[in-house]
Amino acid sequence: MAGFPTLSMSLVATKARRVASAIAIVSAVTLAAPLPASARGPESFADLADQVTDAVVNISAATTGGTTRERAMPQLPPGTPFEDLFEEFFKRRGQGGDAPQAPRRASSLGSGFVIDSTGIIVTNNHVIGEANEITAIFNDGTRLKAELLGKDAKLDLAVLKVKPDKPLKAVKFGDSDKLRIGDWVIAIGNPFGLGGSVSAGIVSAHNRNIDQGPYDNYIQTDAAINRGNSGGPLFNMAGEVVGINTAILSPTGGSVGIGFAVPSSMAATVVDQLREFGETRRGWLGVRIQGVDDQTAEALGLEKARGALVAGVDEKGPAKPIGMEIGDVIVKFDGKDVKSARDLPRMVAATPVGKDVEVVYLRKGKETTATVKLGRLEDGEKQANLAKDSGVEKPVARKALGLDLSSITDDLRRRYSIKDDLKGVVVTRVDPNSSAADKRIQSGDVIMEVGQESVSSPADVTKRVEALKKDGKKSALLLVANAQGEVRFVAVTIE
């Protein structure tokens, strides 16, 4: 028995030596085997940069107008001591009295890129602003005056035209939808006015929302993007433009590895419209929407949070004739799922004006499919809602959901400046410890619906809340308007 431990230790040692030898062999094989090219990354970006650099331009935009008066002469009452001295001092500096004023000139620098050899250039709208002098500066030093063909503030794009003596080097849009997180990209632009500069990085994320507008869907990259890169192209490894660099997130003002580009899949259509029409022509559904969170989904009887909740229907919009109502939840548009409220504006805007589109929406748990002919967003934005209605009840007050409620009286309309056409129940006080306070309901708001049913008196509100309690609902979905008539849905906990 005494020999077993020794034998066992000998076997263990032998096995250990064999394992070590195997590991050494595997390690040698692993070290000897080359990594896939995709894992190593490109050895150089030089060939790609040579291929596309000449299509990237610097944009100089200047606005001339008004006069410069950096220090205006102080306004002194007549007879003030030293009045003559002040006047003489400012006259000598050309900043007061009858001295001529120099024209005021403001300028900015950015980037752009040529998409048509005849002289079509794309840049950011914020690069040119309201400039009346725009110059495109090419890689060889050539400077050409540029004409503005059209611009779009929503996507921050502008299209320019120059008149070259010979065909220009141009690049094409690629398909940004094919980009994968981790793909290599390069940015070329004019950072801090230094001229053509190349930086490389990867796609860090898709579909970024940075609260810049209704169509936020940015590509995030860690390729160095700085001031002056705005309007410049983001290239894939095939030399195609997959994004237009437009913003950075930075506490310092310089690159910290978080830059954003407008995807080519969104930009290309807008660029085509600006070239052809000088303006955008986006689809318009005629609804105002908001997101659906978990609490709102529960109040609506949805199995999960999804879709876009209709918070308003334009009386002259395309959705009105098909019977769409406040409280409907749009879950599919033109055959595509609406996963969140952010998806719908992009889908509608990218759809041709006048197209017949199938829309699927939920109303009180029932799915409805309808076909709508899209209008034009730009026309819809010009329309004014002239609907007026009046009708005031006798004052009645009650409490519900942590709110003091009253029917709308002339006195309350004046006190809270409530629009004449608003109907419902006015909030006169909010319990600061209530769910309603957490959802930012405040005095002067008007409750129009409870549980997707209209209310016209405080008694209606309490009746609806009690009915929801009996149905086992944990929250009540309120349609709330502020004094100016802007409505939103709010899910408030039923206590």
UniProtKB/TrEMBL annotation:
- What's a single GO MF annotation on this record? serine-type endopeptidase activity
Q: Which GO terms describe its biological process?
A: proteolysis
**Keywords assigned by UniProt, alphabetized:** Hydrolase, Periplasm, Protease, Repeat, Serine protease, Signal, Stress response
Q: Give the binding site residues for substrate.
A: H126, D156, G228, N229, S230
One GO cellular component, as annotated: periplasmic space
The EC code for this enzyme is 3.4.21.107
Kindly give the NCBIfam families that the UniProt entry links to this protein: degP_htrA_DO
Its recorded name reads Probable periplasmic serine endoprotease DegP-like
What organism is recorded for this protein?
Chelatococcus asaccharovorans
